[in-house]
Structure formats: structure tokens, C-alpha cells
């Protein structure tokens, strides 16, 4: 089987704001859209991200264990900018930390089952063996 996409849930009330965040601030492009879902891709990648519109958010204390992850030389600063962008649009968001090199942006009223993670590039330097 060929890997195609990963899907996450977004609260309907904030769906378009989260889509705009990924398109305007994170550089994703829209591939396809239906009434209840959208497929996005970051140019240069080969995995797609699907967001499914759901009725409500869910306050899950384990949400931070499911991430859409990015690399950055300044991960906390990047996420703080995104949190401010969301807050300006009425979506409560805050930045937390897994460590001094790994951070996450949580917006529980919007991102139902995931957070946006940003980490230093050296943390993704995995030895690949074919």
C-alpha cells in the first residue's frame, strides 16, 4: 500500500479559521474540498493532510500526544505567532512545551484531536536504513 494522507478533526465553528491558518501562515495549498472535509498539502511534501469538520470540540487531556508537526530553528517563537493569529480571530490558543526543543500549540475549541507541534530540526535527524 502507498501512504496517502493523515486525517484530523476540526470543530465546525472554527473549521475555516484553522484551514486559513494552514494555508495563509503555514503555506499549505488546497487540493480538494467536500462539504465536510478538506485535503491540504505543503508544497514539496508527498503526504496530504485532511481535516474533517465535526460538530464540536472535545477537551481531551491527551490531545498533545497527537500532532501535526513542523521543524523550526525557533519553534516556540513560531508557535507564539500562530497563537496570536488565532487569538486575533477569536480562537483561544496557547503554547506549551514538551522540552526545551519541542513545543506545541493547542486550540482546544478548534483542533479536536491534535495540536500543532514545532521542534528543532536536529530532533528529526533520524538514521534511515533501507
Q: Any key phrases for this structure?
A:
130 residues; globular; four-stranded mixed sheet; 2 helices; 8 strands; alpha/beta; 19% helix; 2,3-Dihydroxybiphenyl 1,2-Dioxygenase, domain 1
CATH fold-type name: 2,3-Dihydroxybiphenyl 1,2-Dioxygenase, domain 1
Helix/strand structural class:
alpha/beta
Question: What is the CATH C level class, in words?
Answer: Alpha Beta
Content of β-strand = 25-35%
Counted beta strands: 8
User: Could you spell the SSE succession in H and E letters?
Assistant: EHEEEEHEEE
Low-confidence stretches: none
Total number of domains: 1
User: What share of residues is helical?
Assistant: 10-25%
**Overall form:** globular
Could you give me the name of the CATH homologous superfamily?
2,3-Dihydroxybiphenyl 1,2-Dioxygenase, domain 1
Protein name: VOC domain-containing protein
Briefly say what this structure is:
InterPro entries: Glyas_Bleomycin-R_OHBP_Dase (IPR029068). The protein has helices at 15-25, 75-88; strands at 5-11, 29-33, 37-41, 48-54, 67-71, 94-97, 102-106, 115-119.
Reconstruct the topology from this structure.
Elements: E1 5-11, H1 15-25, E2 29-33, E3 37-41, E4 48-54, E5 67-71, H2 75-88, E6 94-97, E7 102-106, E8 115-119
Parallel strand pairs: 1-4, 5-8
Antiparallel strand pairs: 2-3, 3-4, 6-7, 7-8
Amino acid at each position: 500500500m502507498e501512504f496517502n494522507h493523515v486525517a484530523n478533526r476540526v470543530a465546525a465553528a472554527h473549521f475555516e479559521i484553522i484551514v486559513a491558518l494552514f494555508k495563509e501562515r503555514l503555506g499549505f495549498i488546497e487540493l480538494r474540498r467536500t462539504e465536510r472535509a478538506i485535503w491540504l498539502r505543503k508544497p514539496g511534501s508527498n503526504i496530504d493532510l485532511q481535516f474533517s469538520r465535526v460538530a464540536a470540540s472535545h477537551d481531551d487531556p491527551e490531545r498533545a500526544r497527537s500532532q501535526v508537526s513542523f521543524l523550526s530553528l525557533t519553534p516556540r517563537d513560531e508557535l507564539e505567532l500562530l497563537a496570536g493569529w488565532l487569538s486575533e480571530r477569536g480562537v483561544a490558543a496557547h503554547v506549551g512545551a514538551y522540552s526545551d526543543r519541542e513545543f506545541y500549540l493547542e486550540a482546544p475549541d478548534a483542533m479536536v484531536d491534535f495540536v500543532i507541534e514545532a521542534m528543532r530540526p536536529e530532533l528529526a535527524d533520524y538514521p534511515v536504513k533501507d
